[in-house]
Amino acid sequence: MPRAASVCLVRGCVQRTVRNGRCPEHAPPERPWSRVSPRNQVRDAARRLWDRQVRPSALARDRFACVRCGVRDGLEVDHIVPVAQGGTWTLDNAQTLCRSCHNLKSAKERRP
Question: Among residues 4, 59, 87, 95, which is most buried (max CB within 10 A)?
Fold first, then answer.
């Protein structure tokens, strides 16, 4: 069932509403979503740096092999100390692991 037409919220205005309870004359201007917290801006910049510089450097440093088992397939670059636990987004906190070693390490980190 359609909603009944409503009147503008601005005192004295009797025009029909368009958006946010206001008529076209009193409606706020359209604004694109642009509110990004400073914390997220820093995190996103760090992630871009990780993808462009740290990850390729870590792979080359570790000779494109897992540092634990030596496998050369399915490689991932992992934070030695997770960022959530105070680790950094730098090369000295990066290591190359295969998927299975990475999954084992992540499982150990999740345990209390």
Answer: 95
